Amino acid sequence: LARLVWALSPIPSPPDDVMVQSLYSNIYHALNVQKEYPIEDIQAEIASWLMWRLWKNRNELVFNGKEYEAECILRKAREDAEEWKGRKVAEETAVKRLEVQQPTITNQANPWRPPPSNWVKCNSDSAWHNERDTSGLGWICRNETGEVLWAGARAVTKTGSAILAEAEALKWGAETLANFGYKNIIFETDSLQLAKMINGTEEVWPILHPTIELIRHHLLQIGSFEVRFYPRGGNKAADIIAKESITFVSSIPMLYSVVPMWLK
User: What 3-state class would DSSP assign to 1?
Assistant: First the structure.
């Protein structure tokens, strides 16, 4: 049945028209077929969905005694691919719309404010540009007197959108401070949408779901925490760090317990 499904699919067979005995070689061929046939319209995105539907068909046969015809499996895979493509386009459109509407309050009426006694505050930010291959992540942790305890700067492969980079910056700060044993932390971000999704007051976008789940995991390790939106005017230090880190030639994360000269 599986061979018939692949034969009916728009995925070209290997050069000798015979699938080899190696499962991994066949999977590699299916997932990389667009590189071998870059000009032809081969609907390469359907390959992963065909494998998913074949796996589901196998489970239906083993556990429920049901088996679907090859044409039905192929049709379901096409429907899955189209649905995924539609969701991805809608999600990217929503991200772009958000980035246009994102609050950009930068006036001095919102300066950084220290945390309460026995708490620390971690501000995070990112630097993201369409024309660059890297994004910059930055975060800074200060105590109630404003003393810098830790700061992190890192260049990473460019994320799909600015809000993804914002989430990665906050995740890295939360992970680091949780590992360092801090217990009472206020996290501030100038991304209102991100703060709402972390706090559960707005539905998490599928593209952000894995990162936000990791953020929540690290927050639970900390114990007492808050995640807040704060205008960019109070997030300047993290903004400077992110913009500096995007210039790094290495992707090695940099941690500072002493304020670097470029941040003073």
Answer: coil
Decide: pTM greater than 0.85: no
Instruction: Mark 213-236 as b/e (b = at least 16 C-beta within 10 Å).
Output: ebbbebbebbeebebebbbbbbbb
**pLDDT value of position 14:** 63
Q: Would you list the domain boundaries of the chain?
A: 2-85, 120-263
Would the pLDDT of 166 be above 60?
Answer: yes
CB neighbours of residue 245 within 10 Å: 24
With beta carbons less than 8 A apart as the criterion, state whether 172 and 140 touch.
no
Q: Please say whether the beta carbons of 244 and 264 come within 8 A.
A: no
> CB neighbours (10 Å) of residue 205?
18
Class of CATH domain 120-263: alpha beta
Residue 217 is encoded by which pair of tokens?
């995991």
| Higher per-residue pLDDT: 27 or 17 | 27
